[in-house]
Amino acid sequence: MKLGGNIFFMNNIVKTIQSQLMQALQYSVTKAVNAGLLPSVSIPDFIIESPREKDHGEFATNLAMLLAKPAKIAPRKIAEIITTNLELTGISVQKVAIAGPGFINFYMEPTWAHQAIREVIEQDHDYGRADLGKGKKVQVEFVSANPTGLLHMGNARGAALGDSIATVLDFAGFNVQREYYINDAGNQIENFGKSLEARYLQQLGQDVPVPEEGYQGEDLITTVKNFIEQEQQLAVSSSSRREKLVEFALAEKLAAIKNTLLDFGITYDSWFSEDSLHRQGLVNNTLAILKQKGYISENEVALWFKATAFGDEKDEVVVRSNGKPTYFAADIAYHQHKFERGFDLLINIWGADHHGHVNRMKGSMEALGYSRDALEIVLIQLVRLLRGGEVVRMSKRTGQFITLADLLEEIGKDAARYFFVMRSPDSHLEFDLDLAKAQNNDNPVFYIQYAHARICSIFRQTKELNLPQEADLKLLQQQQEVDLIRKLADFSEEVVLAAKLRAPHRIAKYTHDLAGLLHSFYNNNRVIIPDLQLSAARLSLMDATRIVLRNALKLIGVSAPKQM
RNA sequence: GUCUCAGUAGCUCAGCUGGAUAGAGCAACGGACUUCUAAUCCGUAGGUCGCAGGUUCGAACCCUGCCUGGGACACCA
């Protein structure tokens, strides 16, 4: 178990200074109001940000500009009043300046962030943890591909993204469960059975076509061969034969999916069967509740969920005229079951082609008395594979189809994980296979991993050095050193942001930026030098950088090799 | 037609939910290896943030309309 999280949170130098500055600013305004320098106004929600431009200092606030309107005084004038009343003793601020339209900029002592190095080394694997989630129970459901085939690029992106979101949320203090929903019921399974039977009969020499709506994939031939090796099923009825085939094939396909995901670095806490919902009568149960609440209408011979009552464009069938519940009905029951399991927040990762399903799912949860916002859907856009500068055309029908397993074999886990997660889910992903495979500086994955390996390489050569026990971090005054330290200090904030926005691509970018700063430092400074004091300080910096690189890479499922 | 995502440097994309002179990688051009790993670094150049209005101290970001591209609009999942 993790300790209360907040101790890590509190130990963050950036956060500490931000809250100190915030308090000082608030006090300054209060003081100015009491002295009659400012009219009596309530203090707005201002921010302490890190300016992009170095000329603007290490921190800046927009407080004066926000006060301008209620106080009816020009922002720069207000900034002046605030700064003259500001008490900053105990905060390592070197200079305060008013700039631009009314920003108040804080320039820190050069060594203000240096203690971050110690924080990193002390907290090690826990450095960067945050208490944003406060132990809130969250379930992340992702991939949930039909167990009737192989994982494709869309599934792969969902897998990388879902797993990273889960990891980031966990690191940000949520209590996270990863779940895979197995669609082992309904129409699809019936089609699956028919297709299997056709393939089976084909193997026995009969000329039976795979049904039009069935699964054309040739992988079913292998499945059926495996089945025949184990048991012959000739002299039984068709329905019983199908049942046996489906049972066998589902187990085989699911095992394959599990294995591929394992190779992809993903393990689930829970595999949830759709069929189990039906068997336990939970689907009917949920429908009864909806009916009792008045959200089911009977139209002709089918039953409909009144999605229009929740802002949707049209109602949606839950029970077909043949009496069978739709996928939607099962999905409602499934999500109700999730809430009953005690989750405060449900996050689903879906392909963008399911976006029409989002509102009615949320509506159905509202109908059952849950908050529609407690169900959150992250939609991911398509993946386009490129090889040799050309788009790789894929079609299940022609068998031109690259699976996740193929991809892992071709480019490896680390590159695949990084590429799938480096873009915002909202953006179409252009996946350049040649680039992902390249063992050179064009490939961002190698660039980042190389940074980690470089540091490890330094440490391999320090064993015989007689270094001082305690490093004097104040010796780190070079621009590259200061920049690197600041980046390390910012990690926790980056984690919080990535968690809030469900945006692991921020972490991917962070690792790239951090690696860049490391390389830049490395090319301009040597670590192992005759000056043992400075050497020790730099080694501390290297150690901290190594830890943060490793921690950040872990959040996106990429390994941090010690040697390359 | 309705819904939805996207449109930012030649290309691929960031841009911290409204802040200052819009950033990175690649490609282009010019430099740096007797060095702890050059799988690296430094520099130069490159922009009407799709278009038009609006909101305000301030807009790539928010609102409205339009244009272009992807996706979705089943008694499939």
- The helix count comes to 21
What is the assigned CATH homologous superfamily of the largest domain?
A: HUPs
Just name the CATH architecture of the largest domain: 3-Layer(aba) Sandwich
User: What is the strand content?
Assistant: 5-15%
Summed up, the domain count is 4
CATH topology of the largest domain: Rossmann fold
Q: Report the biggest beta sheet as strand number plus sense, adding barrel if it closes.
A: 5 strands, parallel
Write a structural description.
The chain is an alpha/beta fold and 564 residues long. It folds into four domains: 6-108, Gyrase A, domain 2; 115-131 and 439-555, Isoleucyl-tRNA Synthetase, Domain 1 (Orthogonal Bundle), CATH 1.10.730.10; 137-183 and 266-380, Rossmann fold; 187-259, no CATH class. The chain is 49% helix and 13% strand. The chain has 21 helices and 15 strands. A five-stranded parallel β-sheet has the order 7-6-5-11-12, with helices on both faces. A four-stranded antiparallel β-sheet has the order 1-2-4-3. Helix 5 crosses helix 21. The longest helix has 26 residues, at 238-263. The protein is globular. It starts with 5 loop residues before the first helix and ends in a 9-residue tail after the last helix. Mean pLDDT is 92; it is low at 1-9. It binds one RNA strand of 77 nucleotides through helix 3, helix 7, strand 9, strand 10 and helix 12.
